[in-house]
Design goal:
three-stranded antiparallel sheet; single chain; mainly alpha
Length: 117
Amino acid sequence: MDVEPLEQALHAARALVLADLTARDVADAEVVSLVEGAVRGRRWWVEQWPEGAEYVAGLIAQDVQDALLERYGRWPLCPVCTSGEPHALDVEPELGADPHWVCGKAGVVVAPVGGLR
């Protein structure tokens, strides 16, 4: 795979994650910098394993989620579970194509990555 499809995969993944951050009103400059860092970090990974380009959106979403947890707290919060301790959605599959945000407690698919409301 040449460089252009890899860059397209990275830019598409960036756009999906930014759409979710924007939908949840957390896409400030510092958070966008976290996304850029995640994209930079995954660029090397996808260059080493071009066949994994279809997995990069889910991986970047997880990387951003981890970075946000360290700095700000859980994200994105589950909109399904209205009682009990607030918890974040999970990305499934952890390494696969067509990643979705899923409530692990209720076993419900909430939205594709890039499709949060």
